[in-house]
């Protein structure tokens, strides 16, 4: 594997050189949309979507991935995996410094993985679950010792997923509340300069960046524009040049894609595997009975949501796992996931479970907390209110800002049902296990098991799936996982999402990463 990754170094340098040759001049300001405003820039603590739009320009990972999933060296210039898969050796770049001038070393890698990502990151405890220890024989070598082989770990090393953080600034602090959260210091192409709350975050070029000749752009500004029509207007008149994750609502994106100066793409999300879903409180409230949750799944017209709200971008969910995992034979379609919905079947499930409608046709009442990420989600909430009303579940919608919503769902468990989306990522261990494992009931940690669903049989299967090297046996394990979840339904998956990136064609060089808008923008430049 070491030879392969070193080859990628050469490819990466060629790409960088080609961008430099094409750019007429360095400089300029890249203004893009971050929607909504991030609650923090502590990407090592929270994976809230807006954070990912800013933090990876500041923090870097050991590797990036191109749109075909190939590993591209970043802070690690090579990796070597032993024959038994239990020793993984990273050779780090020379001459990298943090934005405060302190050298970046293997000690930072060890600290980032063992003391930060494995403990407080939402997905890190799964990504690095097999890492027993890390040796640092010198400043540019980090040797990971694993209990069991963990090939999925090599898919979780981007600056978005596993940011390397400065040991000298975090060691000895309460990592979740450290000052670094709002005054970040990384090794990336851009330095944090200013956060004007409610307006923008400004990042300036890192003049001491370790990649020679990069970045090209002098300043990067992430703007926050709450109103959707104003965001669209800003894109149309060139005030902003880029936005991802449906920052421009689909209803406007399908119109803008016909312009000569604006393009729309679904590329750049291949490592994300996003899934829209409903999460239920399984411990208290009206949805503790799996029968009710199954009825809700049966009542929803997933194809209608895709066609009407998201303008055809998406695919109906048909299991707890995305159909993308069919490529590794892990996905199986399951019952209780009718693409067009089956209202009569849903009513029968509720009738059989003893939930009879009153004189007004109401069986139960509940509040649906809607993820505060834009107008498309509001419309989805309105549809779900109607769909659940059709089977006698009277819904009140609740909208809040991002910090309040995160606190309600993941800190206080003060909800009964929320509309949300999760990234299933390239392997179930990385993106799916955190949703269902008992060990992932981690109060105060975002985007993990807030349903507080706990099933010892499922826990054993998840543990086995993470360790099983035989493909056929692993496939059988995940079929059992999906069967249990189709019956218990602590989470109802709605549809496999297709995010849109909308950009001005004068912006070049930011489209080669599988992380898309969560990339570093280090090779971006502006055409005169």
Mean pLDDT: 94
Distance between the termini: 41 Å
Overall helicity = 25-40%
Given this structure, which CATH class of the domain at 274-497 is correct?
A: Alpha Beta
The CATH architecture of the domain at 274-497: Roll
Give the low-confidence spans: 1-24
Could you tell me the CATH topology label of the domain at 274-497: Dipeptide-binding Protein, domain 3
Pfam families: SBP_bac_5
Organism: Hwanghaeella grinnelliae
Protein name: ABC transporter substrate-binding protein
Family: Belongs to the bacterial solute-binding protein 5 family.
The gist of it:
Residues 70-437 form the Solute-binding protein family domain. It contains 16 helices and 21 strands.
Description:
With 528 residues, the protein is of the alpha+beta class. It has a domain at 274-497: Dipeptide-binding Protein, domain 3. 29% of the residues lie in helices and 20% in strands. The chain is built from 16 helices and 21 strands. The protein has a six-stranded mixed sheet. A four-stranded mixed sheet has the order 1-10-9-8, with no helix packed on it. Helix 8 (290-299) runs antiparallel to helix 10 (343-352) and helix 15 runs antiparallel to helix 16. It is globular. It starts with a helix and ends with a strand. Residues 1-24 have low confidence and may be disordered. Keywords: Signal.
Name a few traits of the molecule:
528 residues, alpha+beta, Dipeptide-binding Protein, domain 3, four-stranded mixed beta sheet, 21 strands, globular
């Amino acid at each position: 594997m070491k030879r392969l990754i070193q080859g990628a170094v050469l490819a990466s340098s060629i790409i960088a050189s080609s961008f430099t040759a094409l750019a007429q001049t360095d400089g300029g300001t890249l203004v893009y949309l971050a929607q909504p405003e991030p609650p923090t820039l502590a990407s090592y603590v929270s994976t809230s979507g807006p954070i990912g739009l800013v933090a990876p320009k500041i923090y870097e990972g050991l590797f990036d991935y191109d749109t075909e999933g190939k590993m591209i060296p970043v802070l690690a210039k090579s990796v070597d995996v032993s024959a038994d898969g239990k020793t993984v050796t990273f050779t780090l770049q020379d001459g990298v410094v943090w934005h405060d001038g302190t050298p970046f070393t293997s000690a930072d890698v060890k600290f980032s993985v063992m003391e930060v990502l494995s403990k407080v990151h939402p997905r890190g405890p799964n990504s690095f679950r097999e890492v027993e220890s890390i040796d640092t024989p010198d400043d540019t070598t980090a040797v990971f010792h694993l209990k069991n082989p963990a090939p999925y770990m090599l898919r979780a090393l981007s600056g978005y997923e596993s940011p390397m953080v400065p040991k000298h600034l975090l060691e000895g602090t309460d990592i979740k509340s450290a000052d670094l959260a709002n005054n970040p210091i990384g090794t990336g192409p851009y330095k944090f300069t200013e956060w004007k709350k409610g307006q923008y975050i400004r990042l300036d070029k890192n003049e001491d960046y370790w990649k020679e000749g990069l970045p090209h752009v002098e300043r990067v500004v992430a703007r926050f524009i709450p109103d959707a029509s104003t965001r669209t207007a800003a894109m149309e008149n060139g005030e902003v040049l880029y936005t991802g994750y449906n920052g421009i609502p689909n209803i406007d994106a399908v119109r803008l894609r016909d312009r000569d100066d604006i393009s729309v793409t679904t590329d750049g999300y291949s490592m994300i595997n996003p899934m829209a879903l409903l999460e239920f409180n399984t411990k208290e409230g009206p949805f503790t009975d799996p029968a009710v949750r199954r009825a809700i799944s049966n009542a929803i017209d997933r194809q209608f949501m895709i066609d009407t709200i998201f303008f055809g971008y998406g695919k109906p969910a048909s299991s707890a796992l995305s159909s993308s995992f069919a490529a590794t034979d892990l996905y199986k379609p399951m019952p209780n996931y009718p693409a067009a919905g089956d209202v009569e079947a849903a009513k029968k499930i509720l009738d059989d479970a003893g939930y009879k409608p009153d004189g007004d046709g109401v069986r139960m009442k509940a509040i649906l907390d809607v993820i505060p990420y834009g107008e498309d989600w509001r419309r989805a909430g309105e549809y779900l209110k109607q769909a659940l009303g059709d089977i006698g579940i009277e819904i009140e919608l609740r909208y809040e800002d991002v910090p309040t919503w995160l606190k309600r769902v993941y800190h206080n468990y003060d909800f009964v049902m929320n509309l949300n989306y999760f990234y299933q990522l390239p392997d179930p261990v990385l993106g799916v296990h955190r949703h269902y494992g008992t060990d992932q009931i981690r109060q105060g940690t975002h985007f993990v098991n807030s349903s507080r669903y706990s099933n010892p049989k499922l826990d054993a299967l998840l543990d086995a799936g993470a360790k099983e090297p035989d493909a056929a046996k692993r496939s059988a394990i995940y079929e059992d996982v999906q069967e249990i979840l189709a019956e218990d339904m602590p989470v109802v998956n709605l549809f496999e999402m297709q995010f849109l990136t909308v950009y001005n064609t004068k912006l070049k060089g930011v489209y080669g990463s599988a992380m898309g808008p969560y990339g570093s923008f280090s090779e971006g430049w502006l055409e005169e």
